[in-house]
Amino acid sequence: MTIVHIETKNHQLVVSQFVKLFRQLLAKAKNDCFETKGKTFLTEQLMYFIRRSQPIEMILPGFPCKSPNTNSKVFGYLPDRGEEIALEYLDNFCEQVRKFYAPGCKLIIFSDGTTFSDLIGVSEETQDKYNTTLKNLIKVRHISWECLDSFFSSQNGYDALREQLMSQYCSLDKQQVEAQIQNDEQIRQTYQGLKNFLFQDNPWTNSNYPKTKKTRLKQSGEFAKIMIQRNDALTKLLSEKFPHHIRLSVHGHNNSGPKFAVHVLPNDYRCITPWHNVVVKTSDNQEIMMKKEEAEKLPLTALVKRHQQPWYFLQSTEEIWSECELEIINPPKTGIRITYKGNDNQQKPDCSRLNSKTLQNLCLEYGFVVLRGFQVDSKEHLVEFSSLFGKPVIWDFGPVHTIRPKERPDGYIASREAVPLHWDLSMPPSYLETSGRYEDFTPQFFILYCHKAPANGEGQTTVVDGRRVLENAGSTKVEAWKQIEIDYFTKLTYYGGKKHSYPLIMQHPITGEDILRYQEASSSKLQTFELSSQSLPQQDFQQLITELQAKVYDDSCLICHDWQQGDLLLIENHYMLHGRTAASDLTDDRELWRVQLLPHSLPQKSISDISKKLDSNKVA
Ligand SMILES: [Fe+2]
User: Which of 330, 339, 347, 556 has the fewest Cβ atoms nearer than 10 Å?
Assistant: First the structure.
């Protein structure tokens, strides 16, 4: 009896936690009935899974294909940032459930384009490309995919698929639909909405389509009635095939059940979909959706591309952004390049003209930012620009480290050799160690400026996205890594000189996220970099290093930046690791200037002190 009581109590706890989370997912209607009716309906559905200790299952028809209206609504026929955010958001909802309900939560996305793509003039090929790209867009943990092909033969094309759906599941004939439109206010509104959508979105390029606006409107009305019939059939099919699944919808509902309207953007609570809109990231870093033609009218925006495809609009507060081209370097989210595209005859614009808050947000999101085509006049100018992102670390040679090969190098940094992966200020000299706490002496950002570029394809700066490494490793491995601490030692050059120990996984001092803190060994004759650990037996430690090396050098995590003269790199030092590839005799004069930045809130020397310390001839 006691056991039953505890089970019931636990079940109720899971239900109440799920409902609390689910409320945030709901797109609320004016006549919303979730609290009065929908919650009871949802609770019964939840109990079906919870009593059996099964994953909670949900289904969402949607993600059909892009609207063919590329003039005013969307960028093109392939998924973009809108779909990416929506999938991340839905997958993350399921992940949140897993944290309080061990069996977890699964979501089926039923890609429903086939039910109406012919009515808006989208070809089978275009629809297939959208779906294939969508499934490979991000690494999802809890989402699976279904479509009509799962239940009917697609051997004879999509027309045949639709015929099978309609013959087996549609119970509404055309007269019944027309009667509903006459007598039911809600159906009438749905009909009008579909009619407008079909009229606007259909490109009407087929020679069989009517030529005049009046006849196209009439045709859209006929198509809308067919759409209502097909939607009826699809609803019945899904109820039969997925009788216990919680039924989500991207269309407005009063949320009394069985259908629950959800929003697919974290901060946009409307029933608005990525396949009819584009994403705008506002100057306060919020992502919202709107029609492309509306976004194009916004001031101070830049277009962000991914694989040369328009991805989203970025809004800032500076005019210069609209003269820049932005490209994500290693999708989905490692590195972004900002290239000034203004008139070549003009002088390059001062890098400080880019709003530092927007740059900082981009750096936090993508791990590092490349600025190309901007002016840096001097080391003083670089320090002034860098100071927008934090307080420069003042070494005994000043805030700027000039990195170029020496004739007699005292270590690999001042040579043409490769530099092993590390994070900056991992081996601080005593005078920079301050309290000894990682967060007090480790810069959050650092900037590299290319004063003289190396020969093509060598002397590249290597950047590893530690977030991606952890994602690839998976949560079980990351938890195991949290038990490991690694000891590092290198001789004193301008840094090093004593052993420093770091847990392999630490927490980001500002966001609290897990971060990878791994440095690569070096057996260079100029300077060794040694690793050891008290946490593991020697053999296990060697296996760990082999595994880590494979993971950090994985193509999905590593970028080799080919320097061009004048390039600036802004790197987030907690998320990322970096190093350098070796250079040949051709690269005698590679010269980078580096400034490291601690958060503004930490006590540091003032900027007026810094300029006194600048020594342009110093090569550290
Ligand atoms: Fe470094």
Answer: 347
Task: Compute, in angstroms, the gap from residue 162 CA to the centroid of ligand 1.
Answer: 59
CA of 422 to the centre of ligand 1 (A): 6
Q: Rounded distance, CA 482 to CA 59, Å?
A: 36
Exposed (0-12), middle (13-18) or buried (19+): which is 121, by Cβ within 10 Å?
A: middle
Q: How many CA atoms are closer than 13 Å to the CA of 82, on its beta-carbon side? A: 29
**542-559, pLDDT tens digit by residue?**
999 999 999 999 999 999
For residues 17-35, average pLDDT: 92
Q: Please give the distance, rounded to the nearest whole angstrom, from the Cα atom of residue 397 to the centre of ligand 1.
A: 16
19 C-beta neighbours (distance < 10 Å), count: 16
pLDDT at 4: 45
d(CA 228, CA 187): 9
Question: 355: CA distance to ligand 1 center in Å?
Answer: 25
Mean pLDDT throughout 19-42? 93
Domains of the chain: 12-170+242-274 (no CATH), 277-365 (no CATH), 376-611 (3.60.130.10)
Q: What is the pLDDT of residue 614?
A: 41
Residue 493 near residue 504, CB atoms below 8 Å = no
